[in-house]
Amino acid sequence: MLIMNSIHWTYQSCNYVSYRMNRCVNMIARLFNAPLGDTETAMGVGTVGSSEAIMLAGLAFKRNWQNKRKAEGKTYDKPNIVTGANVQVCWEKFARYFEVELKEIKLSEGYYVMDPEKAVDMVDENTICVAAILGSTLTGEFEDVKRLNDLLVKKNDATGWNTPIHVDAASGGFIAPFIYPELEWDFRLPLVKSINVSGHKYGLVYAGIGWVVWRTQHDLPDELIFHINYLGADQPTFTLNFSKGSSQIIAQYYQLIRLGFEGYKNVMENCRENMLVLKEGIEKTERFNIVSKDVGVPLVAFSLKGQSFHSEFEISEMLRRFGWIVPAYTMPADAEHITVLRVVIREDFSRTLAERLVADSLKVLHELDTLPSKISRKMGAEDFGNVKGKKVKREKLMEVIVGWRKFVKDRKKMNGVC
Ligand SMILES: *Cc1c(COP(=O)(O)O)cnc(C)c1O
After folding, report:
1. % of the chain at pLDDT higher than 70
2. Which position has the higher pLDDT, 93 or 368?
3. Domain's final residue, options 228, 261, 294
4. 0.85 cut: is pTM over it?
5. Is residue 415 part of a domain?
6. d(CA 198, ligand 1 centre) in Å
7. How many Å lie between the centroid of ligand 1 and the Cα of residue 171?
8. Which of ligand 1's atoms lies nearest the C-alpha of 136?
């Protein structure tokens, strides 16, 4: 009802909504331990999602870096940003749209997040920031932001570059503060200057809301803020889009106030428990390796054990018959030969559903065991049945993956990872 009542408003046209938005920014900044006095107002803004939030945070870093370089009389035309190869596509968009080189740390088999050592090694004088992810989209794993911070502090002391950190906490921002309060990943670390979080992921709001908050107002260059007064009062704005619906802001405000810290904590604990039930069920089938970690975003990412002559893509395809949409995807460089299935546990994913998913996966596995491999038939390749039990070379696996991608694409059915 709250959403319907506010559906016809943009958030700028109504002081009531701007006020609510600022309240949300303050609550979120405090949740992330921004160094604010009791009466101080936090710096941040509501966005369409984490993607817009990341564009804004990235722009602020780029501008700060340029200003610093100009003041030092140095060149400022080759900015770069350091991330893991596991970043969400919005970072690639930021890099391309705003002309910043993306320097990605490659992954390796068994290690699917950014390695802080390698990241700090890659930092140079043109690095506008290092972006760490709290909850990798692919496996839910939290990157070690504390270690990154400590290594970067040392490097900054030695070089004088002052390279800052942004934390992309799209999923983890509403998880870690509630169930891993000891984990230091946020503004408790001095180099973390901005953080984004999606309201429509674990913020428990419908699609269309994200947040970006800055450590202090000095971390957001003033020249990026526009002041408008034609709607009746001075309104500072820093967004890519001018108008934006107000209903999600109202909904976010409602959830924060209605659930409070304890409410969110209960929801997240529940998600975590259901994740563990699902994980144990999948482990019990003895057919899968679990790729996700127990500490992280509550999701289960898993891949087939050994060299099965069926693929994760086939399992994903067959689970659809039972009404499940479980995406299968390959890992980024240099772990492209690994394919995983991923189940994200949301608030409405109950224990009963977790048990049913395990039972349906078993049915799919039994059925697949009686079928010849679809890939070998589709690809017209040699008999993949021979491959079973043997150590398959990486090239062979890549062939299978490429074949499957083509097969899925030809049928105009692509699984997205979002
Ligand atoms: C989902 C996600 C994004 C993009 O967020 P949207 O709110 O969908 O725009 C960015 N980064 C990570 C790590 C994500 O998981």
Report:
1. 87
2. 93
3. 261
4. yes
5. no
6. 7
7. 7
8. 13
170 lines ligand 1 (CB under 6 A): yes
Which residue among 56, 142, 166, 168 is best mutated to probe the pocket of ligand 1, counting the most ligand atoms within 8 A of its Cβ?
168
* Domain total of the chain: 2
Task: Give residue-wise pLDDT tens across range 324-363.
Answer: 999 999 999 999 999 999 999 999 999 999 999 999 999 9
Is the minimum distance from the CB of 278 to ligand 1 under 6 angstroms?
A: no
Ligand 1 pocket, 143 CB below 6 A?
Answer: no
Output the domain CATH number for residue 54. Answer: 3.40.640.10
The residue whose two tokens read 């934006």 is 244
CA of 200 to the centre of ligand 1 (A): 10
Question: How many A from CA of 363 to the centre of ligand 1?
Answer: 33
Q: Are residues 52 and 78 in the same domain?
A: yes
Is 267 domain-assigned?
no
392-415 residue pLDDT tens: 555 666 666 677 666 656 654 444
Chain mean pLDDT for the chain: 90
Tell whether ligand 1 has an atom less than 6 A from the beta carbon of residue 137.
yes
β-bridge pairing 127-133 and 165-168: parallel
